[in-house]
TrEMBL record:
<keyword id="KW-0479">Metal-binding</keyword>
<keyword id="KW-0378">Hydrolase</keyword>
<comment type="similarity">
    <text>Belongs to the HAD-like hydrolase superfamily. CbbY/CbbZ/Gph/YieH family.</text>
</comment>
<protein>
    <submittedName>
        <fullName>HAD family phosphatase</fullName>
    </submittedName>
</protein>
<dbReference type="Pfam" id="PF13419">
    <property type="entry name" value="HAD_2"/>
</dbReference>
<dbReference type="GO" id="GO:0016791">
    <property type="term" value="F:phosphatase activity"/>
</dbReference>
<dbReference type="GO" id="GO:0046872">
    <property type="term" value="F:metal ion binding"/>
</dbReference>
<dbReference type="InterPro" id="IPR023198">
    <property type="entry name" value="PGP-like_dom2"/>
</dbReference>
<dbReference type="InterPro" id="IPR023214">
    <property type="entry name" value="HAD_sf"/>
</dbReference>
<dbReference type="InterPro" id="IPR036412">
    <property type="entry name" value="HAD-like_sf"/>
</dbReference>
<dbReference type="InterPro" id="IPR041492">
    <property type="entry name" value="HAD_2"/>
</dbReference>
<dbReference type="InterPro" id="IPR006439">
    <property type="entry name" value="HAD-SF_hydro_IA"/>
</dbReference>
């Protein structure tokens, strides 16, 4: 089993910390349906890991949309905010795990591909923003996942070396991003990506069905700080 000592923990948001991936496929279907377009079977895999802005650019090119990138993102934001505020819960055990990390004084950050307005909506509605010292979106860096940029950016803002970070992810592109940044990565189960479970297990250092399993999975290693 991989040996490690961590000084910070970085979370992906959608599908990892919060149960929200179900809604994005529904939004894609509705958004394209308004334009009399069908949602392709390969769409979710194609946009996996892309930043909010990258996804908008992909939609514009693939579906020959006349709307500007800002108009596309604004419509998605309107469609998603109500769901984020009222229908998206924390993943099982996540609240307890966040509290455990806080009690041990471990800094936490979020590295998400989502847009800032949606991130604000879900963090505030669930009341978890105070747990995080840094919240960053992939729109703030050069390239989205699977590039390591967002994880390196969050580690830098936390003041921690990437190799001393533990990352939580739910899809292969995110796992690859964390690994490319030099971090230890735990792959979290999510029904939306259940068909990719074998790939996720292969790419990640650890696997967990939910956050209730994580403390036992890590033992005391997470709380043992590396020597300066």
């Amino acid at each position: 089993m991989k040996q490690f000592q961590q000084t910070a923990v970085i979370f992906d948001l959608d599908g990892t910390l919060v149960d929200s991936m179900w809604m994005w496929k529904a939004i894609d279907i509705e958004y394209l349906g308004r334009r009399n377009l069908e949602c392709p079977e390969d769409l979710q895999k194609k946009i996996e890991g892309m930043s909010f802005s990258e996804t908008a650019a992909y939609f514009k090119e693939r579906f020959h949309l006349s709307d500007s990138l800002e108009e596309i993102k604004a419509e998605w934001t309107r469609m998603s905010l109500d769901k984020y505020k009222h229908q998206v819960p924390l993943k099982p055990g996540a609240g307890h795990f966040l509290q455990l990390l806080k009690e041990h004084g471990i800094p936490m950050g979020i590295a998400t591909s989502n847009g800032q307005a949606m991130v604000d909506g879900v963090l505030d509605s669930l009341g978890i923003r105070p747990f995080f010292q840094t919240v960053a979106t992939a729109c703030e860096v050069k390239a989205g996942k699977p590039a390591p940029d967002i994880y390196l950016f969050v580690a830098e803002k936390l003041g921690v070396k990437p190799e001393n970070c533990l990352a939580f992810e739910d899809v292969p592109a995110g796992i690859q991003a964390g690994k490319a940044a030099g971090m230890t990565v735990i792959a979290m189960a999510d029904e939306f990506s259940r068909h990719m479970e074998a790939e996720k297990r292969r790419l990640a250092d650890f696997w967990a069905e939910d956050f209730n399993q994580v403390p036992a999975l890590l033992g005391n290693r997470l709380w043992s700080r590396p020597a300066d």
